[in-house]
Specification:
By secondary structure, this protein is of the alpha+beta class. It has 2 domains: 70 residues, Arc Repressor Mutant, subunit A (Orthogonal Bundle); 121 residues, Umud Fragment, subunit A, CATH 2.10.109.10. The chain has 4 helices and 11 strands, in the order H-H-H-E-E-H-E-E-E-E-E-E-E-E-E. A 7-stranded antiparallel sheet has the order 5-6-11-7-8-9-10, with no helix packed on it. The chain has a two-stranded antiparallel sheet with strand order 1-2. Strand 9 and strand 10 form a beta hairpin. Helix 1 crosses helix 3 and helix 2 packs across helix 3. The longest helix is centred in the N-terminal third of the chain and has 17 residues. The radius of gyration is 21 Å and the shape is elongated.
Length: 205
């Protein structure tokens, strides 16, 4: 686990309010919302706490908007008591580290390592034979070496996909685990982003 920042009780309370608001409504709270939750009458009291959280790298505020508050990585880490992993969605436009501040985050139990790990959503039924169903979230770890038989997240000019890596007789390709689908050749532009080390099935959410 990362070393947590030292937050005051009030700062952590505000951070939790912001988090709950984003989770429940999709939007951070306004100053008026925060005043009501904290039972204070002064905007300045709220602004001072937000400034402290921003100085500590927990949030970022955008000027000129009532709901311009974004929780950053340190803020999520301060709220979490379990391994916290970035969730990319399925189509990643770039390496996951390049977009940290724009990600959602998810707590994962019983994970041995949270280093170089992220989550992607699986769409389609091409990997049902490997126990990966449409709508599952798979846990991907970035690794330096890939082995024959690894289930990997790969990307080329057509997008991203989860398939099994096969190296047979000098031929390397991506194999679906559903006979309805054909093997996918690996081209020079194909990039292996990581291998699947676990999943979070839709039934457990």
């Amino acid at each position: 686990m990362p070393r947590l920042l030292k937050l005051t009780k009030r700062q952590k309370q505000v951070l939790k309010i912001i988090y709950r608001s984003v989770r429940s409504s999709g939007y951070p709270p306004t100053l008026a919302d925060l005043r009501g939750e904290l039972d204070v009458v002064s905007n300045q009291a709220v602004i001072d706490i937000l400034q402290s959280l921003e100085n500590k790298g927990c949030i970022r505020r955008e000027e000129g908007t009532a709901r311009g508050i974004k929780i950053l990585v340190k803020g999520f880490e301060s709220l979490s008591e379990k391994p916290l992993i970035p969730s990319l969605g399925f189509s990643a436009a770039g390496p996951y580290k390049d977009a940290f501040e724009n990600l959602d985050w998810q707590e994962v139990e019983d994970l041995k390592t949270a280093q170089d790990v992220f989550i992607v959503d699986v769409t389609g039924d091409s990997m049902t034979g490997a126990g990966i169903e449409d709508g599952d979230k798979v846990i991907i770890q970035q690794v330096k070496e890939f082995r024959n038989g690894d289930v990997v997240l790969a990307r080329d000019n057509d997008g991203t996909t989860v398939k099994r890596l096969i190296n047979s007789g000098g031929k390397i390709y991506l194999k679906p685990e559903n006979p309805k689908y054909q093997n996918i050749p690996i081209y020079p532009e194909t990039r292996l982003l990581g291998k699947v080390i676990g999943k979070i099935s839709t039934e457990s959410n």
